[in-house]
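Standup notes
- DV: blocked on the single-chain target, sequence here:
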Amino acid sequence: MQINEMPFEDAIPIEGYGPNFFRVGGEVNEGAMILCGAEVTSWGGYEDTGPLTDLAGHIDFVVVGTGTEMTHVPKPFRAALTAAGIGIEVMATPTACRSYNILASEGRRVAVALLPV
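- DV (later): unblocked, structure below
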């Protein structure tokens, strides 16, 4: 099997995660976070839609990591993002981290909002 390194031109990858932290660009970020391009932002969870809706026009969709297991996101959260023209892909946080890295390496207009495991 050949393993190819993924290029990240306009984004930084998620390098790792663990109990209540994410490692991005060599820095450890505690708690929930949003990553878009090279910008990491603390996230207050589903009630905190502002940092995501502010990305309208800059991203096409957000990958939402719901923690250890995939769960449904609250309807008001989904409605706020949909009203802003932002699509949503929901998955467990480990899968969301991997998916974001692939999409960002492809140059896609994507952000990730992660709840810790």
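- Follow-up: The two ends are 30 Å apart (CA to CA).
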